[in-house]
Each structure stands twice: as C-alpha cells, then as structure tokens.
Fold these 2 entries.
Entry 1:
Amino acid sequence: MLKEEDPLIELIREWIMAPIDESAGLQLSTLEVFTLVEDMINEHVKIPHGSRLKKYIPKVKRMFMPLNLMDAVHAYDAVTHFSRRKRVPPTFKDVRHILNLATVHERDFLTRSCTMMMMMMGDYCESSDMVTVIVELLKKGKVVSLVTAAGYPGEPQRYEARLRGVMGGECNYLHITSRDADTGAVSLRVVDPVEWKDGRGQRWDQAEVDQLLDQAQV
C-alpha cells in the first residue's frame, strides 16, 4: 500500500505533534496551528514567491484562492470532536478532510474521481449514498464533475446505467446532462470535442502520431 504523502498536510501534523520552535519551546494548540496555516495560505495567495508557506514548503505551487480554514475546522470538529482528543493527534485523513471541506466552501465547482466508486457499485448505483450526496450538491447549485477512467466512446447510455442522471466523462470524451424538449426526460449527451478541446490533438496527422510513438519505443 502506498504511503499517503502531502507536504502541507504533513507540515500541519508536524506542528500539532511537536513544537514549531524547539529552542524557544513554542508549542501551539491544534486550533492555533490551523489558524496559523490559514493565515499562511492566504498570504501565499497574495505573495506566492515570498510567503512563509514557501519557506516551509519550498516546492509549494501557486494557490489561486484564499481558504477559510477555521470555518472548515469548526464544521469538522462539530461532527468528529477531533480537537478534544488528548492522546491521538489529527490523522492524515482528518487534515485532508478539513482542507477539502475548506475548498468546497470556497468553490461552486467540485471534481470527484469516481472510477473506484463505479467499480464498487457495479452497473447500478441509484441507491448509493454517494449519489445522494451528489444530487444534494447539485440542488445547492454546485457544479459536480465526475472523472473516470471507464471509457465508453459514443455510448453515454452506459454511463447513465451507472450514474443515473449525473454528469459523467472520460479523458477523451465529455458528456453533459440534457433534457428532451418533447418528453422532458433527462439523459446524457456527447459534447462535441470542438466545444471543449483545444485542438492540439486534432492538428496531428496519423503519420506524426506514429512517428512519435515509434520514437518513444526506441
């Protein structure tokens, strides 16, 4: 099993479990650490090259939106009471859930990898709790994109069999929900690649593609 790794999450957990400055004996509480990290993230959004976050995580990439991390912490804590634990620090998954929750609060667009979800549910998942969550998000005005490696080119009905009425797609194909003007029935329709692809693949002729693949195998 691959070890879960994320520099930001590991930094947060490290600061919670050990003094930030051992020489000064500086020890922050769990909530104080999240408050500090929220401030550092929002600073990094404004000053990506000279931020404190860049100092602690040199390879951190540019961030484009601030996060209200503490709102997410309080929302997560109201359910899990993780901040009250005395001997068990927040786990990797705890911190990841909080960061994900903060991101969801700031965005109206969510992307969900659903390959494993589809594999576990098989060909019918209308009663799945995950589908219920997705539908509730759609009702709240969120845009939900489900990304999967399961490819059915030109067969959107096969996605419908697994994801009833929810947007589905694959790396080479894009489908969106569409309502029939006559019957009112909602189904998936294929989006013309011209509408969403940038054209790079279409500019290559087959001979160039073959040449590239042949060179890659050398």
Entry 2:
Amino acid sequence: MLFRLLTTWSYQILSFITVYAIFTAGIPIEKPRKAIPQWTTHNMSLWEDIILLSSDNEHQPALMINHTGVYIAPDIEKMENETLRKFQILKTNYAKYFYEVDGKPNKEDSRASRAALPRFVDKALQLLNLNQVVGEVETSVMSKMSCTACKAGAGFLQHYIKTGKTRDDIVKITYQFCTSFKLQTPRVCEGITELFSGEVVYVLQRINIGPEEICSFVIGDACGDVYNPTHEWDVVFPPVPKPTPIETKILKEPVPQFKVLHLSDTHFDPYYEEGTNADCNEPLCCRLTNGPAVSPQNRAGRWGDYRKCDTPKRTIDNMLQHIVATHTDIDYIIWTGDLPAHDIWNQTKEENLSILKETVAQLLKMFPGIPIFPALGNHEAVPVNSFPPSSLVNKPEYAIDWLYSELDTQWRRWLPGSVSRTIKRGAFYSVLVRPGFRIISLNMNYCNNKNWWLLINSTDPVKELQWFIYELQNAEFNGEKVHVLGHIPPGHPDCLKVWSRNYYAIISRYESTITAQFFGHTHFDEFELFYDTQNLGRAVSIAYVGPSVTPYYDLNPGYRIYYVDGDREHSTRSVLDHETWVMNLKEANLYDYPIWQKLYSTQAAYNLPSLRPEDWDVFVSHLVEDQTTFDLYYKHYWKNSPTRPACDAECKKRMICDLRSGRSHDRKILCQEIESRIDAGTRISWRAWLYNGFTASVEMI
C-alpha cells in the first residue's frame, strides 16, 4: 500500500498546518532506553495468558497440500532552511495569531477564497510547501518540512481540544483548511473530515504527549528520535539458550519443491470505468464519479491505467484465469492483504466486507482444494489504518470486532477452527502446514504508525509479539521450520520503530527456525534483509516483499511465484528461487489483449549461487559498484514499468538502504557504510573533471 495521502489522521493534521510548533518548548533531552527485561518467575503469568491465546498445537492436524518508483526527493535543504528562517521572522506574531484563530476572522482580509482564515495562518501556509508535504506523506519519504508541518498541526489540534472545541467545530475548521488551500476536492475534504475526525479527537483527548513526541512517533527518524517512556518497551524471551546457527549448504542436486503463489494488494475497484478521467485531482481516478475524459490522453484504459487508478475486475479475472492455465501445479497460496480500492474518503464497513466476501468467493472458485494462507492489510479497516486494540476502546462504534469476526468466518474456509481465538482477538494465527513446517500470519497493523490508536499505548498490542515468541519457541522445541506472513514490511517507514526493533530481535533469536518471511504493502518488487543483533555484519534472514496486482501507480500489475524446499529429510523449507510475472499494461490497453509474462527468475537474473541471506547480503553490497546490476534490479523493482522515473545517487542510496533495513527508522546504523561507498563512487576526481570538460569542449568545435 504505497498510497499514503489521506490514509491517516496525519492528513487532518496537514489541514491545520500552522507555525505553532516552531515556538513551542524544545525537544526533550533523549534518555537512554531502559534495560531489556529478563525472564523471571513473574513472567510465567504472562506466558500462561499467551498459552490461552495460542492454538491447540498438540491436537491441530497438519494442513495437507498437493505434491505436485521510487519517489525521488528533491534537494530541498536550502528551501527548508529558508522556510525556517522566515518562520523566525514571524515569531513576534505568535500571540496575535492565536487571538485571531480563537476569536473572529480578520474582517480586513477581503480575499474571497480565504476570507475566514486568520491572516497569519494564511501567510505561514504560503511559506510551507504544501505540495511537498503531501507528496512526502504519500510516499513515506519524509523531510524536515513534513516534520514541521506535523508538529504545527498536532499542536494546533491539541490546542483546540484543550480549549473545549467540539468535534463539529474541528470538522468545520478542518474542512475549511482543506478546501481553502486546495489540498483536495471539496467532496474528498468532506469525506475525510467526517470519517476520521471522531477517532482523531478521541485519541488526542487521551494522550499526555506533545507535538514533538507525536510526530517522532508518527514520522520517525526524520522528526528526531524523541525519548518517550510510553512508547519504549521490550518483549520477554524465555530462558532458553539460542541454538548455535548451522550454515545452510548450497544444494547441488535437485530436491522436491513446493510451488507457491503470492498475491498481494489487489485493490479491486468496483467503480472503475474505461474512458473516464484518469488524470483527476483526487487520490483515486478512473471512476464513474470522475466523469468522462476531456481528451484521449486522459482516458482510463480498458485494463487499468498507470496513473492513480486501481484494478478493474476484468484485469483480476484475467490474471486468475492466466494463473490457473499457466501454473497448474501450485501447492498453496499466500495472500498478503489490501483488498479495497484507495477511495478511503467514502468507504463504508459494509462495502469493504462485501469486497472481502467477493474476493474469497473468487479465490475458492478459481483454486478449489488449494490451501490459501491470508494476512490482513491496512486498507481493510474503515477508516483505513484504524485497528484499535480492544483494551484502548470503550465505545462500540470504534471497535474492530466487525472486521475480525468476518475474517474469522471467511479465512476459515482454508484454516482450522483452532485459529479462531487469535483471529477474533487480533487477526493473527499459526497453522501446522505439514509435519515440521508451520506458517504464522501476523497482523502488521499493530506496527503501523498510521494507526493512531497506538498513540495511546503502543506496548505490544493484544500481546501479538509475545504470542509470536511463544509459537516460535514451541516450533524450535518441535524441530519445525516457520514461514512468516504479514502485510506491512517490518523495515518499512510505516512500521513503528519500537515494534520493528522488537520484531528484529525476535527474528535474530529464532533465525534457525524462521526460514522465510513474506510481505506486501509497498506495491514494488523488493526485499529486506535482517542481521544478527550481536553482529550486524552477518545476515540471518530475508523478508520477500511481493509486487502488487494493482498498477497504482506507475506500475504494471504483477504477482510472484516461489519455489520452496519441499518434503524430504532435513528439508530447510527455504526459498530456492522465485519469479515475478507481470502484464504490460501499455500493450494490453493498446491492443486490447493482455499478456502475462515472466519478467525474471531471481537466481538466473542476478547470477546468485542460492537465495540464502548471506547470498543476498553479497548481492546488496555488489549493487553499490555494479551500476548495470543495479539498473536491472531497479527495472524489476518497478515491474518494468515504462513510466518509472530515473534514479539518481540519492535515490540509489535510499533503494539499497531499504534492502538492508529490516529494522525501520534505523538507517544511521544499518546504512552508513553503504551510503559512504555510494557517495565516494559519485565524486569526480580533478583529472576526470578536466578530461570531461576538455572532451565536451572538443565536441562543440
């Protein structure tokens, strides 16, 4: 789910952008994190609670299976510094600003479109580059500008709440800001404010942290690592020594394999209409409500569109028909979420549940008898990203039971009844696929920093990670290998730093048990590496991030096929190879004939000896100097999209760093060496500079 705009409460904060936070107290001094808790007899009560949550593994039967764009951020440091300098000039107007906001609008301001806004707010907003802020929220590539906007908006919202403004007051003011500064169309502004405002106000009324802490929590390292004891916690590991890792040997002979289909981020749009406006001014286009295109260039294609448009039903149908005809030997399917479209300003619970039921019915029809292992995306909730832990909500209208109960009903078309307890509690589960092979599906929305409920308390929501440790420890005792499924990759900026840090520690501890991880969310074709927490030079695990079915946006539709070490003695259950298949959307629309083709096979394309974590680590390091291989990876990352942007040195650093970052918001530790090498490679010596200049001069003669 690359779409960020309007997907979170932070979009409402953008509507309140002011200079409030520029003049608030300084950032608290960072304090050292508390020591990691050690196992004691007191922890047994916690462990007993987790046991009650867990599946009855002893009696659970094995599920038998068949044997057969990177956003390129502009160089904006100079602009940001100039903006901050101008804010300091405006500091003297701070008191006047609040007088105008809390009182009546200045009647002397005659500009019709902004007549109801305080003059100081108007001037301050002109200084902030709102388009840049919106773009950064959309791509999760944040800078100081977004941090400033976040702190300003958060402070302003908290000010309104403390002064007794009602929800209706806040909705009205939010809508006014949104429309006056053309952040979105009036109907999108209205839908967002109505849908999100109640929960945002509910959360902000119940927290005791200021703008600095809020924005450090939401945005991450781009907004400073502000110490906040409320959001510093560690899971507890049992007193069992970590087994000595055994090196996985490269297979020299063919072995039995499982063929696994990975589907992610379908984002089915039931209102997609060919010929409608694909270049609208809203977060989602190509819909009946966008009206007909005013020019041939703006017409929505028959099979989809590279612009901000989701997937028409005919494209999903065609893809599934192609998969059934081409891959007749699929053993099982992993399905990593995000079913509804990106029209999050006018979604309803009823419609999202309808899409869930329709998708499940379609998969059952197309893949009868084939096990499917699902994971929950962030778009299934209404509002999007809203997954309140039951312990934080005392109002039924905010509870998430409506979704989890239906997931339990629909997912158990493929899963055993023993998983019902954890699905209803938190939409996660553990199943024994075959003797010695387990799949664990996590609800990654409890690491989602756009899930504003976690501002109240982010400590291991619904005890999911503690349960995860319990399942892994049992798997280790039983000699099982485990695959982990989820939606948001744990190293992605959308994952909370504290949650990601704990998850990273779990992966490191159970590296001999967890042999593969699978996620979605980004829409790109990529992966993340994990390293030993005691030796960050040793890779221990890899998370594969599958491509999206939706072309949203600038992408070709795609899916992934994995080949996994199958049933044999001492099977590693590791991924031996994988393929990405895509549909060339441009050609499909041009000739009205979609063709799905294999874009690449990993081991052959990258000349890898195997797909072990250490082999991927060497590959990532190789990308720094080998521009040809990097260009090939970049092409695959964008699923061979003809609209992919160029990638400069900053883009390259970000791309390669993402591959090394299984732990979110920790680039200073994980990426410093990589970034230094790229910087060194882009410097031009004086001899090269002189030669290049001389050559250019000769060519001009």
